[in-house]
Write a structure and sequence with these properties.
Length: 572
């Protein structure tokens, strides 16, 4: 009987082994298809592997992962938990499931898995890190401390772990163990004064100021510029209520170029904030910045803070400008200062300075299209249209992929204007089309494109549609109203054209008022006159032609002069 039972068991073992071997084959094949991203075939093979060997933990695990790949998370979790239930000692299964729980903010479910992993692989410090963090976050402070102790046992004393334990002891209100932790840290790292300063601060917090100052004095004899010591001394005298002494220390730290820069900047920021609302605050802050910058001449961060304070205090930009120029003397490639100066000179239309700053910006930051845009504008302002075109084309080639569509559209609009001016109509239209691709609501591009189409009497329907959008956006803009009226005139809709042109050149306006109106140009008055002529008002037409000539700007054409002289409409 025993022999028969042995044979049966052996037979089952062989069958199970054969099934697992077949399952392993299908698992291997499924893995190949998964690497090729052929998900459906891989899924079919994983299912087949599990069907061949229903108790195969690896098949369950891989099938679960596959469901996660295709975003069927609930099914994936079911299979992965089955794999863990079948083989609870496999840390790969445990780690994958714990990572999913942590990633989906379900740390409470990850905890038992992490604890099991820690028991199976006690030297895994990454697991200990997750465990100590979870215990600390959920108020299990003693468990967190024990976990950190295990970590230290594995890797030795580390300041990071010691300070974590120190903070946990303080949360528990256990000042004795907190002191002991710091003392141990000081003994372990005797040359690192940071730990001794922290020890002094701990004494200070517990009212033992005598012992605190003793420790601070010891540290000052060894490292007089220790940044933690400087801040601790400042806190110490503030705690004693010795305000003058604290202010002297603060000022000394801020002016000490050997002191830690971040500490100095933090103190300066606190000082600046403390002066907000103080009637004398502006002068005190300005004096402090000026004094420190006399010593710390290359502190760009401090200069930036100074400029930010002046801007917040609504000081004139003319006072901020020298600070930004000073930044560039220290850091010629400083993008913040360069962009600020670009906007400053552009607003003031100081084209020589604008050109210089844009050349600098385009040299150091060629990917920033704004520098090319304004540099091209300075060329165009000087009449160098071909140079402007080349700069804008170069800027478009070099622009960052993050360049705003609005700016790109503005550059194409400027190109369209210059191409039309130089007679390259085809390139002009292409540039306007590109401008509207990047910003379909670019009002300037819509207006100019529409107007140039009307001048050539081309595609007037398209021109009318584009122009109408501009007057819907800005119904009081006389330039856009003039364009729309002129397009209607070109289409022979004279009465409708007069309706819009009257909003530009009012029939009630006197000649003196029209001549004084900055919106009145020779072109606009000529358009108004032509429209009046075709609406049967020849007297008004002649009157407006005469005014157009009297303005005498650069747009006075030979045809306009003839109209005024011969007192009749002449086609261009």
């Amino acid at each position: 009987m025993r022999r028969i039972l042995y044979i049966v068991l052996s037979l089952f073992s062989c069958l199970a082994l054969q099934a697992q071997t077949r399952a392993d084959y299908f698992l291997m094949e499924a893995g190949k298809y998964r690497m090729r991203r052929e998900w459906s075939t891989a899924m079919m093979l994983y299912r087949h592997a599990l069907a061949v060997s229903p108790q195969s933990a690896e098949s369950m695990y891989q099938l679960g992962r596959m469901y996660y790949y295709i975003r069927e998370d609930s099914i994936g979790e079911k299979y992965m938990l089955q794999a863990i239930g079948t083989d609870s000692t496999n840390t790969s299964y445990l780690e994958s499931m714990a990572a999913i729980y942590l990633r989906t903010n379900r740390a409470e479910k990850a905890l038992p898995l992490l604890e099991r992993m820690s028991a199976l692989e006690p030297r895994r410090t990454d697991v200990l890190s997750h465990l100590s963090g979870y215990y600390a976050d959920t108020g299990q402070l003693e468990d967190a401390i024990k976990t950190l102790d295990r970590w230290e046992t594995l890797e030795g004393k580390m300041p990071q772990l010691s300070y974590e334990k120190y903070n946990l002891y303080n949360q528990l209100g256990d000042s004795i163990r907190a002191f002991n932790e710091l003392e141990t840290l000081c003994d372990e790292f005797p040359s690192d004064m940071t730990h001794r300063v922290r020890m002094g601060y701990q004494y200070q917090q517990h009212g033992n100021l005598k012992r605190a100052i003793q420790i601070y004095d010891e540290v000052r004899n060894i490292e007089p510029h220790n940044p933690q010591l400087q801040v601790a001394m400042l806190d110490y005298y503030e705690a004693l209520g010795q305000k003058d002494r604290a202010v002297a220390i603060r000022d000394s730290i801020m002016s000490d170029v050997h002191a830690d820069r971040q500490v100095r900047m933090g103190l300066m920021q606190n000082f600046v904030q403390s002066q907000i609302g103080n009637p004398n605050g502006d002068s005190l802050v300005a004096d402090r910045f000026d004094r420190i910058l006399l010593v710390d001449t290359a502190n760009v961060e401090l200069m930036g803070m100074y400029a930010a304070y002046m801007s917040y205090s609504e000081k004139p930009d003319s006072l901020i400008c020298p600070i930004m120029q000073r930044v560039l003397r220290v850091e010629p490639d400083n993008d913040m200062a360069t962009q600020w100066l670009l906007q400053y000179f552009a607003r003031r239309q100081e084209f020589a300075s604008l050109e210089e700053i844009c050349r600098r910006g385009a040299n150091y930051h060629p990917e920033n299209l704004a520098y090319h845009y304004f540099l091209g504008m300075t060329f165009s302002e000087r009449g160098n249209d071909s140079g402007a075109v080349e700069i804008w084309k170069k800027g478009l080639r070099q622009r960052s992929s993050e360049a705003s569509g609005t700016l790109v559209s503005d550059v194409f609009t400027a190109l369209g204007d210059l191409y039309f001016k130089t007679g390259d109509v085809r390139e002009s239209y292409c540039a306007y089309d590109s401008a509207l691709v990047y910003n379909k609501d670019n009002i300037l591009a819509l207006n100019n494109y529409a107007y140039f189409l009307s001048l050539r009497r081309e595609n007037l329907d398209k021109a009318e549609q584009m122009s109408y959008r501009t007057i819907k956006a800005e119904p009081e803009n006389k330039t856009y109203l003039d364009t729309y009226a002129w397009i209607l005139f070109m289409r022979g809709e004279y009465a409708e054209a007069a309706h819009y042109m009257d909003r530009v050149v009012s029939p009630d306006s006197t000649g003196a008022a029209l001549l004084a109106d900055p919106a009145s140009t020779s072109v606009i008055l000529e358009h108004a006159a032509d429209i009046a002529w075709f609406n049967g008002d020849s007297g008004r037409a002649c009157y407006l032609w005469d005014l157009a000539v009297r303005i005498g700007d650069e747009d006075v054409s030979a045809v306009l002069l003839k109209k005024s002289k011969k007192r009749k409409y002449l086609k261009k």
